[in-house]
Each structure stands twice: as C-alpha cells, then as structure tokens.
Design brief:
The structure is a single chain. The protein contains 13 helices and 5 strands. The protein is α/β, with parallel strands linked by helices. The protein has a 5-stranded parallel β-sheet.
C-alpha cells in the first residue's frame, strides 16, 4: 500500500511539474505570436495582402481565446493534477506552433527585396505634395514611367529615396525594389549589372549589351511586381536597351535627372519638376537640421547673418542641410565663440 501511495504521489508530482512547464511554454509562445502579429500588421499606405490579413485575423482570435482560457483556469503556475487539462494545454501549444510557422511562411513570401536608402528631410508643402503624388502614381499603377527633374541639390534623390523606402515598407506591393545610382558617367553595361545583382541573376561576363538586355527582360518579366529607380541619370537609355519592357501596373520605373532632354528616351512618362524651397521652408529645414538648442544659443547678430546666408543658398535643400550640419558640429564641439564669429564674418562667395 505504501509503495502504491508513493507511486501515485510521484505520478501526480511529475504530472504537475509537466503542466507547470507547459503553462510557461504556452504563455511564452503566446507572447511570440502577439509579437509576430504586430510585426506583420499591414502598413496604412500599402495594398492589402489577403493571405496575410486572413492570418492576422485568425491569429488575433486565437490570442483572445487563449486569454479567455487563462482567465478561466487561472494563470498561476501551480499544480493542476488533471490529465484532461494537461492534454488541452498541450493541444493549444501545438496550435500556437502551427500558427506561428504559418505566419512566418506567409511573411517570407510577402517580403519585398531591396535596400533601405538614407533619407533626408523633405520639408515644405510643395515637396511633400510632389512626394505624395508620386507615391500615388506608384502604388496605384497610374503610370509606368515617372520622371523627376530639377537642378542639382534641389531634392530629387531625397524624394526618390523616400519612395524607395515607402515601397519596401508597403507589404505586398512589389516583389523587388531596385535602386541604381547612374551618376558619375555610369555606362549602360554597369546599369544592367546593378539591376541583375539586385534581382539575384548572373549576366554572362563576355556578353554584349543586347544579350544582357534580353536576359534582363526575361528575368524582369518573371518578376510580377517591381519598382526600378534610376537615380541621377546623365545619358538617356531606352527602356528596351536596358532590359525593361511592359511597364504596367506593378511594374514601375522612376528616373531622376538634372538634364531635361534625357527624358526624351522615356515615352509615356509623367514628369515632376522639383523647385527650390521657398524662403520659409528653407529656414524651417535649416532649423530642423541644426536643432533648436543650437539656434537658441546663437547671438542675435550671428543668427541674423545665418538667416541671410540661408537665403543666399536659394532654396537648395542639400546645401542647406550641409550648412546646418556644419553649424551643429561646431556647436557640439564647443569651439570658442571666436571660431564661430570668424566663420560667419568670412566673405560669402
């Protein structure tokens, strides 16, 4: 009898210990599921991915049911020597595991391949308006080719970088977001190589431009949705020469350049002209980049000279940002006031 009682007690203890561990694992995996739900929630500016939305709804309901079950049986980690309860916990744990695996699989299929670009601020209603209009064209598939024109330093690359990053965040909109820097006289062969590298294909090293273009056209046709950004173009290339065909909804090309005639190679395009910032927006950008504590500690006569200098930059965001960064660095380095005065009293050319 004593051995029998001891065996029963040991069995109850082991069952209790197992259920306590299962409770802990269940709550831990439930937290993992909640984290995955937050991670995969659709961004406000992207189209709905039906499979992902269905999974999020299903997973959210499952979490609510688990919360209800926990409140009914109690969340305290104490022994509940009940085989049926133990089996129920084990079943719920396995359901959680399956949900998490499904969510991870869907997220991998929904992920957009590309690289986040460093963004600079596009302050001003005009700049924000252009950026918003371009994003609508891209996300709604209104036009296949979008041209962004403006003089050097006006913010063309900043707008393109913002669109690049927004496209990467918009789950399910594109399979690939491809960025190619065409500045510094990049030839057509290098442009093709950069595109090929972005979509993970190899171009024959000894092949000519036409062969490469054919390979890219075939590869890009197989990519259902892509956004290709050619930044700072100096020479016009026809899309077919690059390896691009059938720019329709979900297949978009953005080209930025300071040379207006370059856009003649891209028919059916929509052109956006980027203008310099107005005086108020130029100062707002400078104040944002320089940071308020820097400006608040400037003597009045230097602040006045700063405003004049910003006006002399004629609304060029790149130049304004560089001046703001220089001023901030001087302030943070705690250079003597004489150094700052000498900089501002130097002749402006």
């Amino acid at each position: 009898l004593l051995l029998s009682t001891t065996a029963v007690a040991t069995g109850c203890y082991n069952l209790c210990k197992s259920q306590v561990n299962n409770w802990r694992m269940l709550r831990w995996r439930k937290q993992n599921l909640e984290d995955l739900i937050e991670q995969l929630k659709q961004p406000m500016d992207g189209p709905v991915n039906p499979k992902l939305s269905a999974w999020i709804s299903r997973a959210t309901v499952h979490v609510e049911k688990l919360n209800t079950y926990e409140s009914q049986v109690g969340t305290r980690e104490k022994c509940r020597p009940d085989i049926e309860a133990g089996l129920k916990i084990d079943r719920k744990f396995r359901e959680l595991e399956m949900l998490i695996v499904d969510g991870q699989r869907i997220s991998e299929k929904s992920a957009t391949r590309g690289n986040i670009r460093q963004e600079t601020n596009t302050i001003g209603s005009a700049m924000e308006g252009v950026k918003g209009a371009i994003w609508r064209d891209v996300s709604q598939g209104v036009v296949g080719i979008i041209s962004i024109h403006g003089i050097a330093g006006v913010g063309k690359t900043a707008i393109a970088a913002a669109i690049n990053n927004q496209a990467l965040r918009a789950t399910g909109l594109f399979d690939f977001v491809i960025w190619v820097d065409v500045s510094n006289g990049a030839n057509l062969q290098r442009v093709q190589e950069d595109i090929a590298r972005s979509i993970s294909i190899n171009l024959p090293p000894d092949s000519n431009i036409n062969t490469r273009a054919g390979i890219l056209r075939t590869a890009l046709t197989g990519k259902n949705r892509f956004l290709l950004i050619l930044d700072s173009m100096w020479q016009g290339y026809f899309p077919l020469d690059i390896g691009i065909s059938e720019l329709t909804r979900g297949r978009n090309l953005i080209v930025t350049s300071r040379i207006f005639s370059m856009f003649n190679s891209f028919r059916g395009r929509k052109l956006y002209e980027i203008k310099p910032l107005v005086v108020a927006d130029a100062w707002n950008l400078f104040a944002y980049e320089a940071e308020s504590d820097v400006l608040l500690n400037l003597p009045n006569h230097i602040l006045t000279r700063t405003k004049t200098a910003i006006q002399d930059l004629q609304g060029m965001p790149l130049a304004i940002t560089e001046v703001a960064e220089t001023l901030r660095n001087i302030y943070e380095a705690r250079f003597p006031a004489e150094t700052l005065r000498n900089i501002y009293e130097a002749p402006w050319e």
